[in-house]
Write a structure and sequence with these properties.
The protein is of the alpha+beta class and 602 residues long. The protein contains 18 helices and 24 strands. The protein has a nine-stranded mixed β-sheet with strand order 16-15-17-18-14-19-20-21-22, with helices on both faces. A five-stranded antiparallel β-sheet has the order 6-7-4-9-8, covered by helices on one side. Strands 2-1-3-10 form a four-stranded antiparallel β-sheet. It is flat.
C-alpha cells in the first residue's frame, strides 16, 4: 500500500474486536482477551470473528474497549510505560521512535503507553523486547490485535501512512540485526570525539551524564552497536569515573546510545520530554489570552519583503532572550541561540555582519553556510549544527525560501517543513526561519493598516499552515531609502490572540512606537485607493462586501471600486451577484479615510 489509509476508512473494514480484562489461569495479571460482538471469544487469526468499528462500538459498554486486528498490510508498534499519564510527557527514546515512524499514533488505555499504526510489513515474526525508556516494545503485522482509544497524539499524522523502510529499520534494531546502511562519520565528529575522549564536557554545560551519552553515541556508530566494545572503549576515555561501575547507569547509557541509531541525540539522561502540547516558549505569554512566541520543539517563521529587517529584528530579540531580559513587554528565560546565515563568501559575510552592526559576542553565534552546505539542504546543515552546538535552544535559518528550488510548490515546502519539524521535536529546540513575502503597493506612499494573514508569505500556502508562530514585518512607508520609517509587526500564533505593534529606530535602537497616522490623499487619483483600502480593512476575508455610508463613499463609487478589487485579486463576484473579499488587511477599528476633494475647475 502507498496511499494513506484514514482512520474512518480503517473503521469500515472488518478487522475490529472487543476486549475485556480477564483472569487467565497461569498468569498473575489480568489479560486483555478479545471478544466478538455476540459475546463469544474472538481470535486475532480468524476473520470470521471480526466486525466493523461501528458494530463493535454499539456494544462497547458491555466490554472494556475496542481493538483493531493487525493484518493485510497494517502493522503496529506498542511502546509500554513510555510516558507519564498525568503530564503526557514521553521519554526521549520513545519519542524518537514515534517521530521516526511518522504515522498515526495514539495513547494506550492506561495513558502510560502509545500505539503507532502504519502501512507495510515487517521482515520476520512479531517481536516483544525490553527497551530503553519503556518497559517493552512490541512490533507486529499479523496474528495480533491492539487496543484502540482514538486518543490521537496531536503532532503525529492523522492517517496510517506507508512506512515500510521505517518499520523495517526499527524491527532490525529491536531484533539486534546489523543495519545494512553504512554510516559515515560527520565532518565535526572527530573534533567532538577528541574533546570527549579527553574528558572535556564543556559542550554539554559540564553535564557528565550528557557527555557520557554523547561519547557512547559516537562509539556505537564506530563499533556497530556492540555494547561490549563500547564499554571497553569508554573505560579508556577521560570521562571514565566511578559512576560507570554502576551497572544500571552503564547499561542504560549504552542502550540509549544504541537505541539512538545512526543519529546521536543530545538530551539530559534523566529528563522527560513532552510530546502532546507545548508549554515552553522563547518569549513567554503576555496574558492568559495570548500564546507565547516560538515554542520549543516546533518550526516558526519570520516573513517580510526585502529590506524590512527580518534578520536584524530576530537577532535583536535573540540577544534579549540570551540575557533573559524583557522583550517588548514579554518575559524571557535565558537561552542560547545560533544563526545559520547564507552568504557568498567569508568577505561578503563580514560585510553583512558589519552592516547589521553586530557585536563580537553576537558574531560568535553566526554560522556561515557554504555553497556546498547550501546544496546539501537546510535539514542536513541544521542537523549538523544541532549536534555540534548542543547548548543552543534556538536556531535561526536566514532565507529558508532561498534554499529551496521551488519555494512556491506545496510538496517541496511541506516536505522541508516536515523534516525540520521532526528535527525540532527530536532535539526539543525552536527552529525559526526567515522567508520572503511579496511587496505590495501602498496608498500614496503610506499604509498604516498592513495586517496580513498566515497565508501572505511568498509562495506556497504550506508556509503558513505548517508552522507555529509567524511574524510578519512590513514597512509603513514606500520610500526604500528611509530606514527609520516605522514598521508594523504582526505576531500570528497558532491558538492565542495575535499581537500587532509598530517599531522604529530611535537613537540607534529599535523601539516600540505609536501607530503612525495615515497620510491624507491629496489628489483625485487616490480616490479609488481610499475606497479600496477602506473595503480591505473593514471586511474580513470571506465576508460579503456590502455598501455602508460610513465607509466614506457613495454606493455607486463604492461598488465601482469593489469591481476593481475583483480584477486585482482581492475580491470575487459569486453566483448570487454579490462581491466577497478573498484577500485583505482586516482591522475593523481602523480609521475610515475620507475621499479627497475633487479639484475645482478654474
Amino acid at each position: 500500500m502507498s496511499k494513506p489509509l484514514t482512520i474512518d476508512e480503517l473503521k469500515l473494514q472488518k478487522r475490529w474486536v472487543l476486549w475485556r480484562l480477564v483472569k487467565v489461569e497461569g498468569k498473575d495479571r489480568l489479560t486483555k482477551v478479545p471478544f466478538q460482538i455476540n459475546g463469544r471469544k474472538a481470535s486475532d487469526t480468524n476473520p470470521g470473528t471480526w466486525s466493523t468499528y461501528a458494530e463493535c462500538k454499539a456494544v462497547e459498554s458491555q466490554f472494556d474497549g475496542v481493538g483493531v486486528v493487525l493484518c493485510d498490510g497494517v502493522w503496529g508498534v506498542d511502546l509500554d510505560e513510555c510516558c507519564d499519564a498525568a503530564t503526557g510527557k514521553f521519554t526521549p527514546e520513545s519519542r524518537e521512535i514515534v517521530i521516526a515512524l511518522d504515522s498515526y499514533s495514539e495513547f494506550s488505555p492506561s495513558g502510560t503507553g502509545c500505539h503507532v499504526l502504519g502501512l507495510g510489513t515487517i521482515p520476520g515474526p512479531g517481536t516483544k523486547k525490553p527497551w530503553p525508556g519503556a518497559k517493552a516494545i512490541e512490533i507486529y503485522d499479523k496474528a495480533r490485535y491492539f487496543t484502540f482509544t482514538g486518543r490521537h497524539l496531536s503532532k503525529t499524522p492523522a492517517d496510517l501512512l506507508a512506512r515500510q523502510a521505517q518499520v523495517e529499520s526499527l524491527y532490525l534494531r529491536v531484533k539486534g540485526a546489523k543495519a545494512s546502511l553504512v554510516v559515515k562519520a560527520r565532518p565535526d565528529e572527530d573534533a567532538r570525539y577528541k574533546k570527549l575522549w579527553a574528558g572535556d564536557k564543556s559542550d554539554y554545560k559540564d553535564d557528565a551524564s550528557a557527555a557520557d551519552l554523547a561519547l557512547c553515541c559516537i562509539l556505537a556508530r564506530r563499533f556497530n552497536n556492540n555494547p561490549f566494545k563500547i564499554d571497553n572503549e569508554f573505560r579508556n576515555s577521560g570521562l571514565y569515573r566511578e559512576k560507570w561501575e554502576r551497572e544500571d547507569y552503564r547499561v542504560r547509557t549504552i542502550l540509549k546510545a544504541i537505541g539512538a541509531g545512526q543519529v546521536p541525540v543530545f538530551y539530559d539522561a534523566e529528563e522527560l520530554i513532552e510530546d502532546d502540547g507545548v508549554d515552553e516558549y522563547l518569549v513567554e505569554k503576555l496574558t492568559k489570552d495570548h500564546e507565547g512566541w516560538f515554542p520549543l520543539g516546533d518550526v516558526s517563521l519570520v516573513g517580510g519583503s526585502s529590506g524590512t529587517g527580518k534578520t536584524y529584528w530576530m537577532m535583536t530579540l535573540f540577544e534579549k532572550i540570551r540575557h533573559g531580559v524583557e522583550a517588548w513587554g514579554h518575559v524571557t528565560k535565558a537561552r542560547d541561540y545560533r544563526v545559520l546565515m547564507l552568504d557568498r563568501g567569508a568577505k561578503a559575510m563580514r560585510r553583512t555582519l558589519d552592516k547589521l552592526g553586530l557585536s563580537a559576542e553576537v558574531r560568535k553565534r553566526v554560522i556561515r553556510v557554504t555553497g556546498a552546505q547550501q546544496i546539501a539542504g537546510p535539514v542536513a546543515v541544521l542537523t549538523e549544527a544541532t549536534e555540534s552546538e548542543p547548548g543552543a535552544s534556538a536556531f535561526f535559518i536566514e532565507g529558508l525560501d532561498l534554499w529551496l528550488k521551488e519555494a512556491n510548490k506545496m510538496n517541496e515546502v511541506a516536505t522541508a517543513l516536515d523534516e525540520l519539524q521532526r528535527l525540532a521535536t527530536r532535539r526539543n529546540v525552536a527552529i525559526i526561519a526567515s522567508v520572503g513575502s511579496a511587496k505590495e503597493k501602498t496608498m500614496n506612499g503610506r499604509d498604516t493598516e498592513r495586517y496580513h494573514g498566515r497565508d501572505t508569505l511568498f509562495g506556497s500556502v504550506a508556509w503558513g499552515r505548517k508552522s507555529e508562530t509567524i511574524v510578519l514585518i512590513s514597512k509603513t512607508d514606500n520610500d526604500p531609502l528611509n530606514d527609520d520609517c516605522p514598521r508594523q509587526y504582526s505576531i500570528l500564533v497558532r491558538n492565542g490572540r495575535s499581537e500587532h505593534f509598530w517599531m522604529a529606530f530611535e537613537n540607534g535602537e529599535l523601539r516600540m512606537v505609536d501607530r503612525p497616522e495615515p497620510k491624507e490623499p491629496d489628489n483625485r487619483r487616490d480616490r479609488g485607493n481610499v475606497v479600496k483600502l477602506n473595503i480591505k480593512t473593514h471586511f474580513k476575508v470571506g465576508e460579503r462586501i456590502d455598501y455602508s455610508p460610513d465607509l466614506g463613499a457613495s454606493d455607486k463609487t463604492f461598488y465601482k471600486y469593489a469591481k476593481e478589487l475583483v480584477a486585482e485579486g482581492f475580491a470575487e463576484k459569486r453566483m448570487d451577484g454579490r462581491f466577497y473579499l478573498i484577500r485583505g488587511y482586516y482591522a475593523r477599528d481602523s480609521v475610515v479615510l475620507p475621499l479627497p476633494q475633487k479639484k475645482k475647475k478654474d
